[in-house]
Specification:
This protein has about 325 residues and is mainly alpha-helical. Helix content is about 45%, strand content about 10%. The protein has a three-stranded antiparallel β-sheet, with helices on one face. A two-stranded antiparallel sheet has the order 3-4. A two-stranded antiparallel ribbon has the order 6-7.
Length: about 325
């Protein structure tokens, strides 16, 4: 017997569940529409996901980009697949390279690893794509060449980034038309971005990692004190990984293993398992306090232990130890 769905909503805002066979949800309507168009054209869910992500690199540029990383957990109807497409560090980033630094930099070329998301697009499309790879780029290329109207949410996010990023090489030139962030409703064009996407689409990423764009990235890095080289780009390879899993109160949760931070959620839930959250009001002070403290402890462990998976200890004992330590502390 199927348990009836409860429509009781403990929150004050008037949001309701969306009941549909296919849904694409993003913070930017144009990106969501790009994904839905792939489904309407007979594409797979992965085609929709990729078209959405590709479009976001243009229409939400201060939060996404072709220079970013990508993680994915995909259910193929039988099992889960994990993809870690976080780019490696440049080969020149040895301990001696950062010798004397009190902390890792947070801005500039010495924070830039090899971009992994383009490789993720190629890998995921090769496994699950139904539509031609080029088709996934159509909306993004169109918006880059013809422009799009910046939405209020994105306009606000864009403006908040100006103070910190305006002095980064190239940011003001390409992202601050008229010397400021675009306002809501303003048309923003980025034909240079469209040109890069067009090249990626036609070569399935090869020009990005082993061609013109890799060479141009090296030249820009060298000019601005960075260490990234075309050879670093050419050596990039995403990893198919087995997702971590953990049972929590009758549910099985899955996360990408390190170097990603998903393990933090599993560690925190492992600690929360030893507390009776139902005895506290939903999102009440006591409930939130417990959740915040477990996340703080989990992030502290992650900072101490999480690193490149090739150079860190097995993660499963880390999850088990966190849960056991919490149980011991309560007893």
């Amino acid at each position: 017997m199927t348990t009836p769905f409860s429509w009781t909503n403990p929150y004050a805002w008037p949001r309701k569940p969306l009941l549909a066979a296919n849904v694409v949800a993003t913070s930017q309507p144009l990106a969501a529409q790009a994904g839905l168009q792939m489904l309407a054209a007979g594409g797979s869910a992965v085609d929709a996901i990729l078209a959405t992500a590709i479009t976001l690199t243009l229409v939400e540029p201060v939060s996404n980009g072709i220079g970013s990383d990508a993680y994915a957990i995909v259910w193929d109807g039988k099992r889960l697949h994990g993809l870690n497409a976080s780019g490696r560090s440049p080969e020149a980033w040895t301990p001696d390279y950062f010798k004397g630094a009190k902390a890792m930099p947070v801005r500039g070329w010495n924070t830039v690893t090899v971009p992994g998301c383009v490789a993720a697009w190629v890998e995921m499309h090769a496994r699950w794509g139904k539509l031609p790879f080029k088709k996934l780029f159509e909306r993004a290329i169109e918006y880059g060449r013809e422009g799009f109207l910046v939405s209020p949410t994105i306009a606000g996010q864009w403006d908040k980034q100006v103070a910190e990023l305006k002095d980064q090489p190239g940011f003001a030139k390409y992202f601050l038309p008229d010397g400021r962030a675009p306002r809501a409703g303003q048309r923003f064009k980025f034909p240079q971005h469209a040109k890069v996407l067009e090249s990626i689409a036609s070569t399935k990423g090869k020009s990005f990692y082993k061609g013109e764009w890799a060479e141009r990235l090296e030249a820009h890095a060298k000019k601005n004190g960075g260490a990234l080289k075309a050879s670093d780009m050419a050596a990039n390879k995403p990893d198919w990984v087995k997702p971590l899993e953990m049972d929590y109160r009758g549910y099985t949760l899955h996360e990408i293993p390190p170097n990603g931070q998903g393990i933090v959620a599993l560690m925190a839930l492992g600690m929360l398992e030893h507390f009776d959250l139902r005895s506290h009001a939903v999102d009440g002070a006591d409930s939130l306090h417990l959740q915040i403290e477990t996340m703080k402890l989990a992030f502290a462990d992650a900072r101490a232990f999480v690193a490149d998976s090739d150079y860190m200890v097995d993660v499963k004992p880390l999850i088990s130890l966190t849960r056991a330590t919490c149980a011991s502390a309560r007893s």
